[in-house]
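Sanity check

After download, print the first record. It should look like this:
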Amino acid sequence: MTTPELLVVLGADPGTAGHQLALHLAQLGYAVIASVSDAEMVSGLELEGLGWLKPLVLDPMEPQQTSTFTRALAASLRIRFPLSPSTADNNVFHTTIHQPALVGLINCLPISLPDLLRPVEALAVHDHLIARIHAVAGVSLDIIKIVLPIMRNSIEKFGAEDGLILTLFPTKNSSLALPYLGSSLVANQALESLMVTLRREMRISDSGSGSKIRVRVSTPRI
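Expected structure tokens:
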């Protein structure tokens, strides 16, 4: 890697696929900002990242936290990596980064949030369905609106590689469980439709630009 680059990972609570991914990216030489749902998870994840992973608190089930997280994210984009020279390892991929280029957002919220196992006829619209849709689609949109212009600017300012917005969704091959994951499925489908719409709009808006930001959806193989 010739250009120091920064990635944002949403949904990196310990024990989740997002957690594994954030650590793997830090080991590969990226600077990583990752969201966790509880402040008690911050110190442990920061230690695991050896100076190259900055955890920020974002509980997507608490709507009032979104604005706090986006402000903290904007401030964290200006920090120096490694966070502490004493915790940084001697990995040949790493180099001190004073202002990294933000080149990617990897959204693991759809695969990291715990599922509410409940039949559709038992769902309460406001307590369950709307809350889940906001936690997955609403929070994702709020953060994308902050990250997208910064990513465009980073690509142009630092001459970084093309950017990426990647959303990871769970597999859809368990027909037995599907009837009891109604709120998750509806929320995930809403976010997937949102990403398809964003990709189409960006193809038009960025058609005359020298930079390209790819919008992708995928299923993790972890």
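If your output differs, re-run the checksum step. Summary of this record's structure: The chain has one domain: 5-218.
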